Amino acid sequence: MKIKTEIIITRRTADGDEVLRSAAEDVQIVGGNAEGFRSMADLASPHAESCIYCDSTGKRTSEHVLPYAWGGIVQIHGGSCEECQRITQAFEGQALNDGAMAHVRKALGLQSRTRHRKVVSPVETRIVGADGQPLAPVEGVEPPIIMGLPLFSKPGLISGDGTRVELEFQGMGAVAFGGDLTEFFDGQSEVVVTQQESGKRIMAFARTIAKIAYGWAWRDGVIQRLGGAPALVNAFMHKPEKLGAFLGAKPQPYERFPGMTMRIEYKLSMPRQLVYLEVQMFAETGAPTYEVVLGQVADMRAWRKLQPSFANFAGPSVGG
Known about the structure:
Layout: E1 2-13, E2 16-28, E3 60-64, E4 75-81, H1 82-96, H2 101-108, E5 125-128, E6 145-152, E7 169-177, E8 192-198, H3 202-220, H4 222-225, H5 230-237, E9 247-249, E10 262-269, E11 274-281, E12 290-296, H6 300-306, E13 313-314
Parallel strand pairs: 1-8
Antiparallel strand pairs: 1-2, 3-4, 5-8, 6-7, 9-12, 10-11, 10-13, 11-12
């Protein structure tokens, strides 16, 4: 079912809420039932001899490739020093609790160390029919949760002459989550859903996506075979103003993968032979796909030799 959604991003000031941006899209309503999703349990959690971000061999802790609160269970043991962990936890914490994200994680039944105890206030949502009148809720059927995901230009290394480094924000993609809403919208020829999200931390989300891609490729040994990715690490860890060289969003049409909460897939960009990862959170909703450039191979032969180490993956575990 298609619905028209509007995402409104505000900034709270001394004079009240200031509207920064709004975006409207037609999106697909999907269920939030996590039953039957694949588990990450068959993927190994390797050990690192030093911090995967700064090469420190001091006191280290395990690093989740995909954040635990997004369903991640695969770790890199000894993968992060205390200082780097402090940095990644800061921007991941912002991304994981931003706007409606915490409500979405709860609705999907994603694992939570706090068991979602902090998700108490409802998301402000207004649903009206074609006549402009509010739709009465159906008993036992939850209304959708609408969340905005940021849209960016393609990575600077892939687009144009490859020199752009800034992250070019292009708007928000609206993604809908909820239970079985067929009965809720039964008989409605048109439905408009408006939801307000405040305090969107777009850069924190972008840094988290880049970190996921890097961690995944490190787990596979791809980063090592590419000779490292120090510029990418420096961007998402310390200089996010340069992240646009490596990260961007895949243009429409959005792809939808039923039953998959997440998709990670290696790609090659020609003619520069750039190796990059597509990272799609909430793939079952047709959410935007992000592209993260990892490095470069010399030619197609080198690309084919790299492929056996790939671990394209879709559908992480939900819960432990």
